[in-house]
Design a protein that fits this description.
By secondary structure, the chain is α/β, with parallel strands linked by helices. The chain has one domain (4-76, 193-415): TIM Barrel (Alpha-Beta Barrel). It is built from 18 helices and ten strands. The chain has helices at residues 4-19, 35-41, 45-50, 52-66, 80-85, 91-104, 107-112, 144-149, 151-163, 173-201, 216-225, 227-236, 238-267, 284-304, 341-348, 360-365, 368-382, 402-415, and strands at 30-32, 70-72, 117-118, 131-132, 211-212, 271-276, 308-313, 333-336, 353-358, 388-392. The chain has a six-stranded parallel β-sheet, with helices on both faces. The chain has a two-stranded parallel ribbon with strand order 1-2. Helix 15 (341-348) links the parallel strand 8 (333-336) and strand 9 (353-358). Helix 6 crosses helix 10.
């Protein structure tokens, strides 16, 4: 009987073969989901957001019972702007701060009082999924030049006091106390990470991703301007938007490589999560002008450093598929949210690994037989002409029925063999 290390090595090989468009032994399953495993383990969403012991217990139980090839249970992103603001001061500290809320839990939300997120058991109910929506722009329209000319000064002096309510007056007891408390939480993180990874690896777990490389336009839209007003900026201040993106791109690529190194050392995974949010709202022309050049720059840097960009195209990307052919073949995973992967394969051809195909609505409202039929049909269509990873929308299956997730898993394990 194989031990956990042997099973993990097989999963790593299966995922790397798929990413490189080399036929693996079986179609892999790779999914990011926090809320369904919480429900499955019998915990509230608040439990796994704030109690790290229960968070680990949830991950161990899920890894043992479902044995997916890759699964990530991340929490939130509210400390990312603070981390980026520290990059010019201390790169290692910046990374610890940036990933603290993603893996370390909701303490950063409580301590810093960010304006971005609504968390289970806090702004929303204990079993209500978290929301990440900027309350109002924390960067004004007349501040583009400051961002372009002195990006780190701008982040620290302007963005941080507006983004974190408890840091609004940086010399106040509230701000100083909050930073001390936050520093204590960050200090716990390396030990927590190793404990969590060790317990999960004992169950042959492999993360779908542990590393992160945002892109400039999405970062500005999500954390600074909000996408509504940024849409106007593309017309009012096009050159300033591009100059700001040019300045941020190498910084965000460096974040991807640094977190990629941590992920590789701790878990064995080379995948770096590259979330792409704004694609749904941009015409192909605007996408090629403002978004894609910087995405491509970051992707190419990650590939050159021997990492695999896991490009999460959230929303719909049907109108952008032809443009995506410019990405390096056999080097990236294109994970589609709402876009039909079968149609994407028709456009993109056999040179890329695609991921997706399982709508959360089916797992939530369908039956095991319907899930089985859909999964078999999906595999029939995606098994040839390139490689494929069975996945669902990003963190979208919280209310899925257990029997449906089991049906999907069993179908892939049996029907997905080559």
């Amino acid at each position: 009987m194989e031990n956990a290390d042997e099973i993990r090595k097989a999963k790593i090989q299966r995922m790397e073969d798929a990413a490189a468009v080399k036929t693996p032994d079986r179609i892999p399953i790779g999914i990011a989901t926090t809320f369904f495993p919480a429900k499955y383990a019998g915990f509230s969403y608040e439990d796994v957001w704030y109690d790290n012991n229960k968070y680990i217990e949830m991950g161990v139980k899920f890894a043992k019972d479902f044995n997916w090839d890759a699964v990530s249970h991340h929490r939130s992103f509210e400390s990312v702007p603070l981390g980026l603001a520290l990059a010019a001061f201390d790169a290692d500290l910046a990374i610890l701060v940036a990933v603290n809320s993603v893996l370390g839990g909701g303490a950063s939300h409580d301590i810093l009082a960010d304006v971005y997120s609504s968390n289970p058991g806090r702004e929303v109910g204990a079993n209500v999924e978290s929301q990440f929506v900027i309350e109002k722009p924390v960067m004004n329209e007349d501040e583009w030049d400051f961002l372009i000319e002195k990006p780190f000064d701008f982040m620290m002096e302007t963005i941080i006091p507006r983004a974190y309510k408890n840091l609004a007056d940086k010399s106040s007891p509230t701000a100083i106390g909050s930073l001390i408390k936050f520093g204590m939480e960050v200090g716990k993180f390396p030990g927590f990470l190793m404990e969590m990874a060790g317990k999960l690896k004992a169950e042959a777990w492999l993360p779908y991703y542990y590393a992160l490389a945002p892109n400039p336009l999405d970062f500005i839209g999500a954390f600074y301007r909000d996408f509504d007003v940024l849409s106007l900026d593309l017309y009012r201040h096009p050159e300033k938007v591009k100059k700001a993106c040019e300045g941020l791109a190498p910084v965000l690529a460096a974040v991807g490589k640094m977190t990629g190194k941590i992920s590789l050392d701790v878990t064995g995974s080379r995948r770096v999560f590259c979330p792409i949010w704004y694609n749904t709202y941009l015409s192909p022309e605007k996408f090629k002008e403002f978004h894609f050049p910087y995405i491509k720059q970051i992707v190419n840097e990650l590939v050159e450093a021997d990492f695999t960009p896991l490009m999460s195209f959230q929303g719909r990307s049907d109108h952008l598929l032809e443009i995506l052919k410019e990405l390096p073949a056999g080097k990236v995973i294109m994970w589609f949210d709402k876009t039909d992967v079968v149609k994407a394969r028709e456009v993109l051809g056999d040179k890329y690994c695609l991921a997706g195909g399982i709508p959360s609505s089916l797992l939530i409202s369908g039956t095991p037989e319907k899930v089985k039929q859909h999964t078999e049909h999906l595999i029939d269509n995606m098994k040839t002409g390139g490689t494929f990873i069975v996945s669902s929308e990003f963190n979208g299956m919280g209310d899925a029925k257990v029997e449906n997730v089991k049906a999907m898993t069993e179908t892939v394990m049996k029907y997905g063999k080559y």
